[in-house]
Amino acid sequence: MDEDDRARLAEFVAGRTPALMRVAYLLTGDRHAAEDLFQSALAKTIPKWRTLRHTDPEGYLRTVMYREQVSWWRRLRRRRETALTGDGPIQPDPSGGTDVRLAMRAALRRLPPAQRTVLVLRYYEDLPEARVAEVLGCTIGTVRSRTHRAVTRLRQLLPDVELLEVRR
């Protein structure tokens, strides 16, 4: 990698890290895991920088993050499946000052990783179903069913929050 490539890479990383870290956090539900995910994806992207810098390096890095996250939750699922505590609805703040974003984050963390990933890709990243299926390596039908299950579960967890209708 020459000096020009290093400078462009440094500029890209400095400019895009906050947005990419937000996506990583939404995918993992944990700050430390998000940092690990971002660093792992970046480590896989840097060797390809010379060819990526002329195309879509951010898109490539995001795809690596999504696929890396899918691999992580598949490995976790194989090790053991553990039920999360507190399966009931998330209770609103008794003072009436419920912060919907915080409640949504808490609810997202309680979804299975596959459902959380689909919601992040569909509604946070605003990707169409076909692109989500491509990124995750599954069918459009799988994306639709995971989205439906995830939104249904969010409605159970957040009964007082009006969720948008599932869009296709």
Give a short synopsis of this structure.
It is built from 8 helices and no strands. It is mainly α and about 170 residues long.
Question: How would you describe this protein?
Answer:
The protein has 168 residues and is mainly α. The protein folds into two domains: 1-80, no CATH class; 95-168, Winged helix-like DNA-binding domain superfamily/Winged helix DNA-binding domain (Arc Repressor Mutant, subunit A). Helices cover 70% and strands 0% of the residues. The protein contains eight helices and no strands. The protein has helices at 3-28, 31-45, 49-52, 57-79, 100-110, 113-124, 129-136, 140-157. Helix 1 crosses helix 6 (113-124). The longest helix has 26 residues, at 3-28. Mean pLDDT is 80; it is low at 80-86 and 92-98.
Helix/strand layout:
Elements (H helix, E strand, L loop, with lengths): L2 H26 L2 H15 L3 H4 L4 H23 L20 H11 L2 H12 L4 H8 L3 H18 L11
Helix pairs in contact: 1-2, 1-4, 1-6, 2-4, 6-8, 7-8
